[in-house]
# Entry
Amino acid sequence: MDIHCLFHQNQLDYDGTQLRELFARTMGCPAGDSAIVFRGACHVDVAHLVDSADALAQQPIHSDDMLHVIMEFFSVDLLATVYLQRLFMVCVLEELLGRGVPALRRGDDIFVDHRKFSVSIATASRVSTLIHVGMNISSRNTPLPTVALGDLAIEPWEFARHVLDRFSREVRSCWEARCKVWGVS
Amino acid sequence: MDIHCLFHQNQLDYDGTQLRELFARTMGCPAGDSAIVFRGACHVDVAHLVDSADALAQQPIHSDDMLHVIMEFFSVDLLATVYLQRLFMVCVLEELLGRGVPALRRGDDIFVDHRKFSVSIATASRVSTLIHVGMNISSRNTPLPTVALGDLAIEPWEFARHVLDRFSREVRSCWEARCKVWGVS
Amino acid sequence: MDIHCLFHQNQLDYDGTQLRELFARTMGCPAGDSAIVFRGACHVDVAHLVDSADALAQQPIHSDDMLHVIMEFFSVDLLATVYLQRLFMVCVLEELLGRGVPALRRGDDIFVDHRKFSVSIATASRVSTLIHVGMNISSRNTPLPTVALGDLAIEPWEFARHVLDRFSREVRSCWEARCKVWGVS
Amino acid sequence: MDIHCLFHQNQLDYDGTQLRELFARTMGCPAGDSAIVFRGACHVDVAHLVDSADALAQQPIHSDDMLHVIMEFFSVDLLATVYLQRLFMVCVLEELLGRGVPALRRGDDIFVDHRKFSVSIATASRVSTLIHVGMNISSRNTPLPTVALGDLAIEPWEFARHVLDRFSREVRSCWEARCKVWGVS
Amino acid sequence: MDIHCLFHQNQLDYDGTQLRELFARTMGCPAGDSAIVFRGACHVDVAHLVDSADALAQQPIHSDDMLHVIMEFFSVDLLATVYLQRLFMVCVLEELLGRGVPALRRGDDIFVDHRKFSVSIATASRVSTLIHVGMNISSRNTPLPTVALGDLAIEPWEFARHVLDRFSREVRSCWEARCKVWGVS
Amino acid sequence: MDIHCLFHQNQLDYDGTQLRELFARTMGCPAGDSAIVFRGACHVDVAHLVDSADALAQQPIHSDDMLHVIMEFFSVDLLATVYLQRLFMVCVLEELLGRGVPALRRGDDIFVDHRKFSVSIATASRVSTLIHVGMNISSRNTPLPTVALGDLAIEPWEFARHVLDRFSREVRSCWEARCKVWGVS
# Structure
């Protein structure tokens, strides 16, 4: 359950098509569970939304500048992947709280002062499950009131590293917790 | 994925043998995923520990008075149950934070000012998976420095109800998140 | 394991493309296990058949007027979905028998006096499993000898409601049966 | 998914302890999915009940003479095993109906004229899942009003053979149905 | 777990598109786990590679004449399918060794005197898992140094029959080994 | 899928009770997939056999001196564990062949000149799956004709290290093979 983390330094815009089988692999990650971090605009039009709630509401996603994380898992089903997605958002929350930011979590969303900080979705492919998390670097030109890392004076890459460290430790310690107990009858 | 919650009002001490198949069922819960809440001392001697780390350290568990939650799930494996256990502890954390208590989470443990607030374990039976969470009501006579609901002036049953509400919503919204997405290729 | 049932009142013809991820969801059903009921012609040409037996036999499906049910499940695999499909057909059988119709089941087909009453298929998507059941309302213009709800003087919507009720109870009681037993060694 | 059927001719009483890992194997069945059929009294006292509903109601099971079937499966989980149990009871129902007996099914129970014909339970072991079905051969000395094969003038072994044939065909055709379809997206 | 084997006598070239859901079924195999054996050239261009390592290396696959086996499984996940793929290559290895050929295995590749004998890949579809194995009949025009059945004076069809026999026995005996043990605690 | 290997230097006899949940853990291995290697006599009487074939044949297992490997896995089911057991025996086979020993494999048994070299079994616990492999160090006092590492002039610990290395690489490369492919439709 070790996660390969790849920090892709060049700008890369997210339009939804990056949420596909082996995306991190084609960007240079070794085979296995992975997280690729990159920075770029986020624009997903209605045709590329995988969230049926957003699609039915005809609600495209837009942000001028975001910190993106795409994770891919090869040994958990979609429901467990949603649990992992929530734990990832908890790592974001705890990292923000640790820096004194009064953040709140509602499901897979993080808010600061009622302004939305992030977008996230989890889905399945034929060979894996996938999570996308986008965190605002800039809060300009967003369809809803948002807050961004820029507003909070947080450096994106350093923030990403800390969140990924927290999440990697979380996933590893969950695996150890699963492996250290006797069964009961 | 709806969880039947049973608040068992009579005192009931926990000695580890309650962490067994269909315990909530035999206490009056209907068949299905369940959470039973009760209050009583906690004493698990080394022979009844299911955590091999505690057993190898010969470290029995003791608390004079605890708020106990035993949950049983019938459709998730042990690793996903550990993820649910973490999400439960996050609900405890967020409930404490919401009340102004400066709590911190480390894995499945909650701390306040470096004092331990809770114990928790997840395991599997032949027909289900199980989680025990014990939260101190009193901090007297514990082997480690602890903090308790009593110290924080929090009423145990009312606290339990809020935490269980949070967790039930979390589990339900995870299920909906799992069911609302199109796959990708 | 509760199934959201949606009775879609407007005519809707079935051509095979409705058997897809989140079809009920896009028709207005909430996220989760679902059954959508609708009425319309049934015409699936060879290119849209998911049943390889029909495809190899080059046997398109046609009926002028059918009662359609499309079900989607998010927590069972394809083999268990076939079991559920059979149990659904048993509910149809038992509902017909209860009305005095001398129906017989052969696998996932229902016959009355050697005439075919229904078509059915179960398959998997990337995020779910799916079942289609079509029951003849009219027996005109079918490639094989058929019997229809019209011939049996049964009102389609009322029939659908009774079958769905039976099936929902069946699925719920299976879940309870799964959750009420101690394991053995 | 082929089921080895063993017809054990010598009398063998059922007291609940036969519902265990590899019982059919130790009676001479080859390794693999199995059904062992035998005849004998049925008496399960409260301590050996695996059904928590019966145990909580303190309701032992008794019949002077029963046709017993114990099935063991090695590749389905407990929920799918409950589906198989229901399909087995449907085979019993259809076999009775085919002989002109006005039988009815309610969940995993078969009734004739409001009298109970059968008992059944499904559970899991560490290596398999198991189903017990008991069908009355005699209706004397039962705690509830019952009907028996003797009352219906049905020869038990011949009846068992027909039911097992139906069920084997059902299971095989479910497997083929699962394997003959293209997926959808 | 019985595998239907189909020996397709007419020449059939492999270009990667044969590795799809129900390919053997559409060639005449009954529904269920299957292995189809055929002979023909092998040419998979970069666009049709499912192996991301080959795709990233821009390495098309070519052989003038190969013995092909495509297997499809309906009850194992992708990781277990990779285990089965390895066991299949072990059957190839042991068959060669039994004929006095000094073959060696490295993962899913077979070598003779440092020359490559075979190519292989395992992947998943929406309804099954699939394995392709190609074994050189001719060693002409291959991008790497290869060895072929022709060089070893081995008749391809007879070789295929022996390998498939070994593999069928292996898979069956694995299933029996899985079904013959009591659990432990 | 990394396997912690523990070489336990002190003599330890195997009587079947070591094949239990978390045995390696209680001997000092960290939580997670594990292989513990030790040396000692092997005597499993009929009451402790988990293999029903041996138990029905009333065939106890005995060897004066064996190299033992007990492996425990926390993320594969019993059938996949049998596949892993076979792959382990293949690693033993290939290691022997690489040293010029004319070994043959039949299922999970290794033979040299028709003499048995090893015993092996795979089973499941409530929280894991387990494999035991015993390889003769001495061929004295065995119930069947056997061959031993001593007869082959192979040092047991050095042999164990090479076999475990092979197997660890095998398991890791299977995982990578599972994670490197795009799905098909």
User: Anything to note?
Assistant: The first strand of chain A starts at residue 4 and ends at 7. Residues 118 and 135 of chain A are 4 Å apart (CA to CA). The longest helix of chain A spans residues 156-179.
